[in-house]
Design goal:
The chain is built from three helices and seven strands. The protein has a four-stranded antiparallel beta sheet, covered by helices on one side. The protein is elongated. 18% of the residues are buried.
């Protein structure tokens, strides 16, 4: 039985990305294969492939984080726009929403870790973690 999961994380300002990190995690029998592609707007693409036996996985965690640039824009906007009208303050939740992400951290028994970055809080994150922990 084979199950594939797709995750994506963009680095940039809002939805204008200067780098995309896409990850594909495939569970085949008792093995997990993780392919992480780092695709910058300018420069050379990088690819990392990790194969892990499910028995070698010690822990799987979900860590909530924020994209640095989007969070910085939201904070600066908040500071600059507080004295202004309330309508412009409506931009801040968009930057906070765009900055939100969930990282999946897979810890192995040998001490190594694999981090899968994901932009959204979709159901696939929880499904993936449940499937790996079985």
């Amino acid at each position: 039985m084979e199950k594939e999961y797709e995750f994506i994380n963009g680095k940039g300002f809002g939805r204008i990305w200067y780098k995309t990190i896409s990850s594909t995690a495939t569970i085949r029998g008792d093995e997990l294969e993780v392919i992480i592609r780092d695709e910058p707007l300018f420069g050379k693409d990088k690819e990392m492939i990790e194969k892990i036996r499910l028995d070698d996985i010690e822990d799987v965690q979900i860590k909530t984080g924020f994209d640095f640039w989007d969070l910085l824009i939201a904070i600066i906007s908040l500071v600059l726009l507080i004295p202004s009208e309330g309508k412009t303050l409506l931009l801040i939740p968009f930057f906070l929403f765009w900055s939100y992400r969930k990282d999946i951290i897979i810890a192995c028994r040998d001490g190594s870790k694999v981090v899968i970055q994901n932009d959204s809080n979709n159901h696939e994150v929880k499904d993936f973690v449940t499937a790996v922990k079985r």
